[in-house]
Design brief:
The protein is mainly beta. The strands form 4 sheets. Strands 3-2-6-9-10-5-4 form a 7-stranded antiparallel sheet. It has a 3-stranded antiparallel sheet with strand order 1-13-14, with no helix packed on it. A two-stranded antiparallel sheet has the order 7-8. It starts with 14 loop residues before the first strand and ends in a 15-residue tail after the last strand. The model has no long low-confidence stretch (mean pLDDT about 95).
């Protein structure tokens, strides 16, 4: 196998494509984020990385909370729009016909059309260069009832999007379950 060596860059992929809602039920915004992930299990922690010049940056910094809304395939174009246009000039909820729903633990709205919404409270802001990382406690998770089979979340039913090297992809086929490489037959 031949490989081409490139200079260091942001090429860990895929990453989740998420729409982050911030503000409150009256005045809110949506920012599309690709730099998002889990940092810890107990307590549950996540992060989003945001450029300080983005409109949502000051809202998240001031409020100290946000909601990560996982994007299904039918909202990929909407997520792209929300990442390309500033909330300083356009109400993205209105323009994209998205429904604000009340969260349980934070004042930021959920995006009703997204099948999974993760409520977050900022615990730390870490300046990293081009972006600042908002490290946050996950204080609640809202999951569409249709994704459940008993108590199990069937994540494949959500038809979630991922972002890789400037393009959106749908996550589709399950390849295995954690531990399947060592499972006894």
């Amino acid at each position: 196998m031949s490989k081409r060596h490139l200079k260091g860059g942001a090429l860990v992929a895929p990453v989740p494509a998420v729409m982050v809602s911030c503000g409150d039920m009256e005045k809110s915004n949506i920012i599309t984020i690709a730099w998002c992930g889990i940092t810890n299990t107990v307590p549950p922690k996540t992060y989003i990385s945001v450029r300080p010049e983005r409109h949502s940056y000051d809202i998240i910094k001031e409020k100290g909370e946000f909601v990560i809304n996982l994007v299904p395939r039918n909202l990929a174009k909407t997520a792209d729009f929300c990442g390309m246009h500033t909330g300083r000039k356009v109400d993205k909820f209105q323009k994209c016909a998205l429904t604000k729903a009340k969260a349980q633990k934070v004042s930021a709205p959920l995006i009703e059309e997204c099948p999974i919404n993760i409520e977050c409270k900022v615990s730390d802001i870490i300046s990293l260069g081009s972006h600042d990382m908002f490290l946050a406690d996950i204080v609640g998770v809202n999951v569409d009832e249709r994704l459940f089979e008993g108590d199990k979340i069937c994540i494949n039913r959500a038809h979630l999007c991922a972002f890789a090297h400037g393009e959106y992809y749908e996550l589709t086929n399950r390849l295995g379950k954690f531990g399947f490489s060592s499972k006894k037959r």
